[in-house]
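Bumping with the actual sequence this time:
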Amino acid sequence: MKNLFITCLVLLFTLSLSAQTTDKAAIQKAKDEIIGTFGFYPTIFEIVPDYQVPGMWSYFITTTGPQNAIPPKYRELINLAVAAQIPCDYCIYFHTEAAKGYGATEDEVKEAIVTASSTRAWSMILQGNGVDLDQFKDEFKKMMAFMAKKAQKK
């Protein structure tokens, strides 16, 4: 049993090492794409270990790409709202400027932050008071049904 355990550990260690040995060509390709996109190699990628750059770049372009269901301006406003809640000065700056770059107005930027604060405030109130989640869901369904019925009468 002990030998099986040691064999498994050695296998896991070997697999983790081979997973970190990404093809140098893939690393260079990702770096070239980053430079081609931004005009230089930003620190945000410089601080990532080389073997992780292709994966991080792929993640970055997938989550920020034009193929996403949420339009870029709204995606950046969502990211800004999250950044303000974390809080992260780097993210707040990045997502504020990106949202504006995609056409967000100053009022939309402000509203995204205020809306996020509202969610956080209500979350604190509900969580802090230990409101039962199933009760909350039932009440929410009743509220929505009432408002839908009321809207149909208009």
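The tokens above came from a reply further down the thread. The mean pLDDT is 90.
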